[in-house]
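[Automated response] Your request has been received and processed.

Submitted sequence:
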Amino acid sequence: MNPRDAIHILILSPIYFRLTLSQRLQLVREYCRSINSCSISITR
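Generated structure:
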């Protein structure tokens, strides 16, 4: 998953807009890392 797709999903959360810009960036990175690691483990 790329960051743009993650933002489209996370933007639906009411908490997303309460975070600071740096917190949003961290959230997007963690979300992408989490989703990508799940998809790798499923394909193995």
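Summary generated for your ticket: The chain has one domain: 3-43. The longest helix spans residues 21-43.
If you did not submit this request, please reply to this message.
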